[in-house]
Structure formats: structure tokens, C-alpha cells
Amino acid sequence: MAHKSEALGSKRKLANGSKEQSSKKPKFDKKPSRKQESEEDVSDDSEISEFSDQDDGGASLGNAKSQQNDDIPFRAKPSNNEPGKTFEKGQNSRESHIKQKQLALERKNAKPLADELHRTKKLWERLRLKSKVPKDERQKLVEELFSIATGRMKDFVLKHDAVRVVQTAIKYATPERRKMIAKELKGTYPILAESKYAKFLIGKLLVKGDDEIRDMIVPEFYGKVRKLINHPEASWILDDIYRGIATKEQKAILLREWYGPEFHIFRTATDDKTVPTAELSQILEEQPSKRGPIMKYLLDLTNQLVQKKMTGFTMLHDAMYQYYVNVKPGSEESKEYMEMIKEDENGDLLKNMAFTKSGARLVCLLLAHGTAKDRKQILKTYKDTFQLMSTDPNGHLVILAAYDLIDDTVLTSKSIITELLGKGEQDEVSNVVIAANDPNARLTIRYPLEGPSKVLFDAGRADNLKLLEELWEIRKTTSKKDPEVRRKELVAALSPQLLSAIASSPLDLISTSYGAQLVTEALLSCVGDKSEALQAIASTAQGNPNEADAAADESANEAIPREHISKASYGGRMFKTLIAGGHFDKATRRVIPVDPPLHFADILYPFIKDHIMAWATGPSSFVVLNLLEADDFSSKNELKSTLKKNKKVLEKAATEETPEQKAAREANEASAEEQKGDKKKKGKKASAKKEPAVGNMGSKLLLEKLKG
Hints:
Elements: H1 4-9, H2 34-41, H3 45-52, H4 93-109, H5 114-127, H6 135-149, H7 153-157, H8 163-171, H9 175-184, H10 189-193, H11 199-206, H12 211-217, H13 225-229, H14 234-245, H15 248-256, H16 262-265, H17 280-286, H18 291-307, H19 314-324, H20 332-342, H21 348-353, H22 357-369, H23 372-381, H24 386-390, H25 395-405, H26 409-421, H27 425-437, H28 441-450, H29 462-478, H30 483-504, H31 506-509, H32 513-525, H33 531-539, E1 549-553, E2 558-562, H34 569-580, E3 582-585, E4 590-593, H35 600-608, H36 612-616, H37 621-629, H38 636-645, H39 647-655, H40 659-682, H41 697-707
Antiparallel strand pairs: 1-2, 3-4
Helix pairs in contact: 5-6, 8-11, 9-12, 11-14, 18-19, 19-22, 22-25, 22-29, 25-28, 25-29, 26-30, 27-28, 27-30, 28-32, 30-32, 30-33, 32-34, 33-35, 34-37, 37-41, 39-41
């Protein structure tokens, strides 16, 4: 269907296929010819007298009756109530226009609440000037606005030019007045949702998060979900309420209406006794005989919205997920549903689904149960969308699922990895830096390197890990490739771009904790020549740790101090892990070295050799300790000799309080004083806390190492 503006803007065609006649007037000579003068002399006198008073020099109209139906496809006729646009005798066009404006104003003033509406508009014009109205004046204007609108809110909100007045009243209203407005509008919210302008008023009432107003508005949408979700205006406000405002119970009541009309009709009987559930599996288990009608009703409603291209609703994606998880995998129902989703012409349905929780999970299940052809088509739909998906809390799950489920890793690397990391060197560096520091995008880069580690999937991502484990079970029946082989092939596809980015821009990557973690995992897990990348990372340790580096700020054309990498705790951890050459395995209580070994100790030592004592007595003292413990470190004797010569420096560092410990002690003392005062007030005895250890622990262990 053509867009509304296109339909209005298109040229109208006549029945015979020719275009509508132009409204441009034909040109005429200013002076009539002698032939025209002679013809006018013999024209009917009555006809001349009829038009002479209003003739403005245009062409002669001739016989009006004979031309009534000639060359005029449509003729506007005056209605019964309004006169046509005809001039009265002795009246020109300007006078006629003034009279028409007067008539329009009289009709407007004759409408109900005309005076009140006129005054409120004047108040609104003043109130919307945020910076130019003094606070006292604004308060007076608000009071006057409420004095006019109170008791007449319903009359105002249903007028397109007056609803903004009510919105302004809500904006400056106190919580009590906001509740008063909500109560006054009670019973009209579904009607307001269907209005192009009034629907925003519902959002303004709900945005403050008042539970009483929420519980007043949301129940008015019960029983009207099917009607409103199909409405071009109401559907969006309904979905916004469902997605961001409604409680868990209210969401369940709204979603249940997708299963059939009886879920609203018979809902009120159990309102006060049981909490409703929207889990379709539980409903079908309790009422197995109704499976057919419920599934048909749900399918029809979802298909209806898909066909209308109204596919951006969270409620729709929740309903679709409930349908798919309750059909048997591989059944005709499942295959038909897959086809319905794939047949969406522009792929908007799949793209929208990737950015909601239920939608992303449904796409993951479609990838798991689909054929190789289905997976390829789904990936094709997301072309030019993967970067946006990688930073989304739900969208990045689709990428992780694709890594685990698609056997054709060449297709995966070309479709996903190339888009995530870019093609040019400059794009690779910037994209890797951005991805490394984004809480969601970093998983799409590090997941092939680390797998489902606890570092990536902490307690907050337990649901995501549970979904991936479910996909692994499905993969056993749909995939032919060994999971470890698939992972190694993906690592091989990632390696060239990651190692290149590390080698060309090491300082940008290790400037944050997440970036340093990515560098560590890349250097341990990537395949290929790592020598340039290892050398680049080692070079970031050069310089005196007790002096800040000057980092150029290109935007400001000036140098800003940058803290030495040894001062950052994550920097020390990165160097320690790279020196060890692998990750520590808790089960075997030892480090599992990578193959081939990195030999990072020999690469790092030349860069820190001149300032080794600053490292040994600073926050990253454990890096020096790891150098002594490394089996493949060739300059171990030289390092021991240097440390022994500066034994007194080590002893001083091992016994003196570090700046970090001093700051922590002072904070603890201040906290203890506050607690002591509180306990005295309550009559309780203050408990003594154990004093923390003083001195650099790494320096202490180095001294013990030297004794041995």
C-alpha cells in the first residue's frame, strides 16, 4: 500500500487516462484584437451585465450554461450548510476573503469551551518558553491553567489542538495533581491511545513511575489487546506500556490475550486468588484439550502483524517465542513458522527480533533447528547489522549462537567477523578498540578465544550461558562438525586482524582493563606469527614507572600525562600471564603453556631492565617475581645480581607503607570512627578490626627468593 503522503501527493488522473488539467491560467493579450471587439459588441447584453461588475480583465466566459459540463471533470458544489465561494455584487476577492475569515471565527467561537480553549492556548504559549518565564510567573500561569482545565480534562484531551495544554499541565503538576488528572481521565485511555496526539499524554502520566497511576491506566487495556495492537497509533503506546511500565503480573495478563478471547473473559474470576502466568507450556499442560484453538489463534494474530509489516513490538516477539517453543522441532508447524519468518521481504522481522530478549532467543533457536540453507539466509538478512547487534544486550547472543551452530566457518568469518573488525588497517584498530571496551561487543571477539569462561559469563549473564548450553544440546543432532574444530577455525579467522591491531596500536588497546584482557587472550590463543604483536606490547613497558608519559591529544593539540602501565593493576596482570605463557589451571594447580611458547620474558626484560628496581618496589612487583620464576627466562642470573645489589631498597619497600596502603588505612580509620560514634549512640561496644599488612608483598617475596 502506498504511503499516505505519496497518495496525497500523486497527480490525479481522469477516467480517460489523461492527467488532471493544470490549474494554471492561460495567457491572454492585454488588448483585444479588432475581431474580438466586434464579437464582444454582438454578445448578449444580459450576459455582459451579469459579469461586468466582477470582471478583472480575464477572458470572456461566454455562455455559462453551454460550458457547464465542457472540459470540467469535477465541479465543487456548495454544501447545504455552507455557501459556495461566490462573490456578492460589488464585492472583490479581498473583501470576500475577509468575510470568510469572519464566518470561520464565528463558527469557532460558537463551539463549546471556545473561550476557555482560547485562554489555555495563550497560557501554553507562555509556559513553553522555558528560559524566559520567571518562576513566580510560571507558578501563577500553572495555577490559572489548572483552574480552567480541572473538571474538563476529557473535553480538552480529545481535541488535537488542546491536548498539548493538558500535557503542559502534567509537566508542571505536583504528584497529587498528576493523580487528579489521571483519575479525571479514567475510562478514556484506550481512546486516547488511538489518537495521533493524545497518545503521548499517556506516556507523560506514566513516565514518572507512580504505581497508583500505573495501576489505574494499565488495566484499561485488558481485553483490548487484539484491537489495539493492530491500530497504527495505539499499538506503539500499548507496546511501550507492556515493555517498560507494566508489572510482571500485568504483562502476563496482556500477553495471555494472544492465546484467545477466553483468557480475558474468564480472567476476573481468579484475579484475587492466583497470579496469572503467560507461559504457554504451563497453560497447555493444564488444558491440553485447548491446544489446537490456542495455537491457531496465536498463529493468526502474529501472522496478521507480520503481513502488515508491524514487526517491531516486544509483545509480538514474546508471543512468537511462546509459540515456537511449544511446537515440536522438525514438525510441519515448526517448518511453516520458519518459512513465515523467512518470507518477510525486507527482513525487518528478523532484524527487529534480534534486539529484544525473546526475539533474540527465538532467532538462536531458528539457527539451531534450521537447515544449512536456513542459517545462510538468516545470516544474509543481518548483513550490515552485525556491528549494531554486537553492542546490544540481546543482539550479541545471535552472533554467539552463529559461532556455535554454523558448520561453514568460512561463511561465518566472511559474514560476521569481517563486518565486526572491518577490512582496512585503520578500521581494524578502531573497531577492535571499541569492541574490546564494550560490555557486550567484547564477547563477540573473545568468545571464540576463551569459550564460556567465568570472566565472560559472570553471574549477571547466567541466563545467556544457560541458553548457549541448550543450543549445544540441539547442536548434537543438527551439526556434523566437532565443536573444538569449529572454534579453532574461527580463531584462525580472527587471528590476522587481532594481531595486526595489537602490533599497530598497542597503547590504545592496553589503556583499559578490558582492552588488556583482550590483548592477553589474543596473544595466548591466536595462531600465526605473533612476534610483532609481542614486541609492541613489551614496548609499552619502557620508561621510568615513577614518571608519567606524555600522550598527545590530537583534538586539543597538546600533551596530557598518561600513567605508566606498571601503575595499573590490569597491566601487571597482563604481563604476569604473558610471562607465564598460559593460564593457571585450578584443577592441576599449574600453568598450562601455549604451543608454541611465547618466550615473553626475554622480550620484555630489555624494555624494563634500566628501571627494574622501580618495578620491583612498585605496584607491579610481581612481574619481576614472575621473571625469576619463568623457566624460559635467559637473563635470570643478571636479574638476581641486580636485585642483590639493591637489597636495601627491597627491604625498605617490604616494610614501609605504600601510598595505596596509606590511603586505604586512612579510609578505614575514618569509617571506623563513624561506626564507633553510631555504636556509642546505640549503646553497643565497638569491635576491633584486624590491621592490614604493611609493605610491598612482591618485594617481600623477592627477598625470600634471593635468600633461596
